[in-house]
Each structure stands twice: as C-alpha cells, then as structure tokens.
Amino acid sequence: MRTEFRKLLDGFRQIEKQFGLPPNDVASAVAAFLAGSYMGYRNANFPDEHFKPLVAPMREALATDARFAQTGHAERQDMFEQLATLGMLMATTQIGLQRQPDAGIEARMRQTGKAYLEAFLKTGAERVRLTAAGLRVD
After folding, report:
1. pLDDT tens, 67-81?
2. Intra-chain end-to-end CA distance of the chain, in Å
3. What Pfam family does this protein match (any one) (predicted)?
4. How far, in Å, are 82, 122, 138 from residue 67 at the CA level?
5. What is the DSSP string of 59-113?
6. What is the domain extent for residue 16?
7. For residues 8-47, b (16+ Cβ closer than 10 Å) or e, as one string?
8. Which of 5, 64, 89, 106 is most buried (CB neighbours < 10 A)?
9. What is the number of structural domains in the chain?
10. How far apart are CA 52 and CA 19, in angstroms?
11. What integer best gives the mean pLDDT of the chain?
C-alpha cells in the first residue's frame, strides 16, 4: 500500500511540474484534493485548464488562516502529502471509471467525494462548482 501511495504522490509531482507550481505547496495539494473530490462526486473529468485558477484562492485562504500560520514545517508537509495523495487517488479512480465503468465504485466515489467536499468546504456538495474561474459556491 505504501508503494501505491508513493506512486500517487509521484504523480502529483508531475502535476507540479506541468503547471509550474512550487514543490510541496499545500495550496496546490488542497486544489488537487478538491478537484479529485469534485470529480468523484460529479462522476466527471476535471479540465486541466481549471486547475491553476483553483490554486490561487487556496493560497489566499491559507495565507489568511491563523491556524495554518501556526503550523510547523513537518505538519505542513504531512498535510501536503495527505491532500495531494487523496486528490490523486480520487482523480485516478475517476479516470479509471471512465475507461471501465463500475456502478458500485461509482456510487462509493460519489459518496466519498460528497463527504470530502462538504467536510472541507462546510457547505453542501451540490452547491460547489469548480470552473475556469476557480471555486464557486452557489
């Protein structure tokens, strides 16, 4: 299992390079987590061009979060790894479902994506939109 998680994190490293993002950036990992959760909840792909506009507001939110400001380097690294890995797991599973549909996995992905979005954003998942302009809550 550790090897599989390492592969997911390595996959995220490729995304960092693709989009010119700094390594180990928690805001990028948050964006990946939200994008992967959104993909699972909506049973849909997430366009590449929507990713970078999602990172900027995550960076702004973290910059103004007093609790985040108090976290140490090790805690931030753990946060980065967990969120990046979960985001990649959700995204790669969703991509796999596009190739090989499975109603049971799809249902669990919808439930999991919904739970992640609602817990993280503190709003109903049905209100969340990830667009070319970034995160929007209707």
Report:
1. 999 999 999 999 999
2. 38
3. DUF6683
4. 18, 17, 27
5. HHHHHT-HHHHT--HHHHHHHHHHHHHHHHHHHHHHHHHHHS--HHHHHHHHHHH
6. 2-137
7. bbebbeebbeeeebeebbbbbbbbbbbbbbbbbbbeeebe
8. 89
9. 1
10. 7
11. 95
Residue type, 132: A
53, two tokens:
């506009």
Residues 68-126: tens digit of each pLDDT: 999 999 999 999 999 999 999 999 999 999 999 999 999 999 999 999 999 999 999 99
pLDDT band at 1 (very low <50, low <70, confident <90, very high): confident
pTM greater than 0.85 (yes/no): yes
With H, G, I as helix, E, B as strand and everything else as coil, classify residue 58. Answer: helix
Integer Cα distance of 39 and 50 in angstroms: 12
Distances 87 to 15, 39, 79, 83, 113 between C-alpha atoms, Å = 12, 10, 12, 6, 10
